């Protein structure tokens, strides 16, 4: 039983249980979601989400395009709520992601899509929520009750649900998918143990830093944005997550001597783009940390790098690569005398319209 009176106890427990939750997710709703795509002649996907789930949607956008070869876009929920416009087409699948399934603007986006005869899929942690019951198909992430305000296990649950759905569409044999999930869960447990000390050391080094930059590319973009959000919401750090391809278009201007910069190099594709920025970052005086693939993947890991477990495909790396940053947000919040379970001014369910 977690002692909820201890600052950060909920977030710590929820980070740690993620690998076990991945094993429990299963394939509920995934087959129906795949049939919906096939039967309705889907030729494009639009993702609708907010906050942490929006970053899971970024992952989904890359996954659908790289694995299925069809266009994937991000929705603007204000079309349905503020402007009251139905802007989707019958061949577009609308995928709504939400931990609670209760955000009014996402519920209205799904209603708008159905008025346009679009197929709709909801991925939530609550099968009885308005979003889950309002969509054609619901895929539960089965993360269990998430009590800390900072989302952790629901985020990786959304990533894995998207992965399972795409694998179903690809026709990957169930036993192969099961083995991959078991492998990434084992890797997640090992990384959690390895990353705990790293997160504590980095938190102590960051001290009172008031800004941070997180850089990724491809699948790593979702992690960069989610890592930045975790630091912002739990530690009041002005953190931002960017694609390495966009960083020179302005974000690097925030880097001065001592600015913390985190470089995500866990995936093989896109790694070079991140690494190409590192000399410039060092020249600006940035304090660099990075995640890194196992040594057998090639290249050199620095003394401040966190080496990820080997043998994990790029499309599953985001489940692992976010764990160190969840732990870092937890530890830095505690170092600063804050409670990451109850960030100032935030609530678990955000009702946007």
TrEMBL record:
It holds the Pfam family SIS. Keywords: Repeat. Residues 33-176, 202-343 form the SIS domain. The keyword Hydrolase does not apply. InterPro entries: GlmS/AgaS_SIS, GlmS/FrlB_SIS, SIS_dom, SIS_dom_sf. It comes from the Bacteria. CDD domains: SIS_GlmS_GlmD_1, SIS_GlmS_GlmD_2. PROSITE patterns: SIS (PS51464). This is SIS domain-containing protein. It comes from Cellulomonas dongxiuzhuiae. The lineage of its organism: Bacteria, Bacillati, Actinomycetota, Actinomycetes, Micrococcales.
């Amino acid at each position: 039983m977690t002692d909820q009176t201890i600052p950060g106890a909920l977030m710590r427990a929820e980070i740690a249980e993620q690998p076990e939750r991945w094993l429990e997710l299963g394939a509920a709703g995934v087959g129906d979601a795949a049939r919906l795509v096939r039967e309705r002649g889907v030729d494009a996907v639009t993702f609708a989400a907010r906050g942490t789930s929006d970053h899971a949607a970024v992952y989904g956008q890359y996954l659908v395009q790289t694995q299925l070869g069809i266009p994937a876009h991000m929705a603007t929920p204000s079309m349905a709520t503020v402007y009251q416009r139905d802007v989707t087409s019958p061949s577009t699948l609308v995928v709504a992601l939400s931990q609670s399934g209760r955000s009014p603007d996402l519920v209205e986006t799904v209603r708008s899509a159905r008025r346009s005869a679009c197929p709709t899929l909801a991925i939530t942690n609550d099968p009885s929520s308005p979003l889950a019951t309002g969509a054609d198909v619901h895929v539960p992430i089965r993360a269990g009750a998430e009590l800390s305000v900072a989302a952790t296990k629901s985020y990786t649950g959304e990533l894995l649900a998207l992965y399972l759905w795409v694998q179903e569409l690809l026709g990957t044999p169930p036993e192969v998918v099961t083995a991959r999930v078991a492998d990434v869960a084992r890797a997640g447990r090992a990384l959690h143990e390895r990353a705990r000390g790293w997160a504590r050391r980095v938190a102590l080094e960051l001290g009172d830093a008031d800004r941070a930059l997180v850089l990724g590319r491809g699948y790593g973009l979702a992690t960069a944005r989610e890592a930045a959000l975790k630091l912002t919401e739990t530690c009041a750090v002005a953190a931002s997550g960017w694609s390495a391809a966009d960083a020179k278009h302005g974000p690097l201007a925030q880097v001065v001597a001592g600015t913390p910069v985190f470089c995500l190099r866990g995936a093989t594709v896109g790694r070079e783009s991140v690494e190409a920025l590192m000399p410039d970052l060092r020249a600006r005086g940035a304090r660099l940390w990075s995640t890194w693939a196992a040594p057998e993947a090639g290249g050199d890991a620095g003394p401040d790098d966190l080496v990820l477990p080997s043998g994990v495909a790029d499309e599953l790396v985001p489940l692992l690569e976010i764990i160190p940053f969840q732990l870092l947000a937890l530890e830095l919040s505690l170092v600063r005398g804050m409670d990451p379970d109850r960030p100032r001014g935030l609530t678990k369910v955000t009702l946007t319209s």
